Amino acid sequence: MTYPSINLRCAPSLSAVAGTLLTALCVWSQAAAQLPIKTMQDDLANRSPDIHWPGGFDPTKADLFSHNQLVIHASCERVWEHIVDATKWPEWYSNSKDVHLLNGAKLLGADTTWRWTTFGLPLESKVHEYVPHTRLGWYGYTPGTQPTFYHTWYLTPQDEGCHVVMDEAGIGKDAAHLRETDAGLMH
What is the pTM (predicted TM-score) of this model? Predict the structure, then answer.
């Protein structure tokens, strides 16, 4: 199967400035915004069967589901370093702001909780699945409420680098409203 691909050499001006994997992640985030809008049905048809979904977040029963994947021309260990350094997400993901890890955590790890703003919404998140260099899954919710979103990263090594899957399932009226008003927002 062919996946979208990022090669740092393909973006020399960015690579010269950043010189890191942040370039690839930033390019991915910008490129995703320019892709044709996919429907939730498209995403469900292409989702990874290898994702571990917690109870209540089965994508086939969710009110919102998005699936994203690509190959980054770097090792999964290197990609992982950037994913777990959540305080630096705003450097490569423009919808991430004011990331504050709680309880003295410096990086995301098992059961880490953090507060942040994404798509203009203040959220609290908590890591549910943590397998270094392979799997990171977390719940998202308004502080003081039950989780309404589950986000997961699944990394697998390939000859060209690291195949990265990023899926998210949402439940409830807010997720359903988002699906109805901006189905492509999560890509």
Answer: 0.78
